[in-house]
Amino acid sequence: MEEKECVICKKLFSTNRKNKISCSLQCAEIREANLQRDRAEILNKRQRDNYPKNKEKYKSYYQTHKKEILEQRKIRYQNNREQCLEQRKEYRENNSEKVKECKKQSSIKYREENNNKANEYYKNNPERRKKNMVRAMTRHFHNKEKKECEKCGSTENLEFHHPEPYKVDNFQVLCRECHQEETQKNKPKMESIFN
What we know:
The chain has eight helices and four strands; from the N terminus they run E-E-H-H-H-H-H-H-E-E-H-H. By secondary structure, the chain is mostly helical. Among the domains are: 1-64; 127-194, His-Me finger endonuclease fold (3-Layer(aba) Sandwich), CATH 3.40.1800.
């Protein structure tokens, strides 16, 4: 019998096997889980390091198998929905600056690609153009007046609500929930204006 120290819990244990390094089945399972995690990290690091070298190869594979890949992603997301949402939330919290920059870039790209479409839309919808101008002016001149919701008194997620007629001084300060309720009430009117 030989005295050894467990690699997980650091307890002394006696064994007659030379290659045994954990004192119990529980410690052996923990060690195996740690090894799998380490292997996965090494594999991910290799893939990250090799990606620039094989970028074209990955792109061509994606293009030829796009439908299957998207289907697999969809199935994986459905099976692990809660975990995926938690990972997204964690990523956004840890990389908030990167996420903001990415949103900004995609917004700029969208505007560049659809600028003519937006200009044409506004030319054909003067009522919509007026409403957007009123919103922008209200935000510019009255942003300091946002203190609490006029309906429920909440001080979080405050927004401006513009009832008809659309004028800069004709607005209500509402929280997001009250604003959505108010918008739902006026939805039939709005649809008749914009359609």
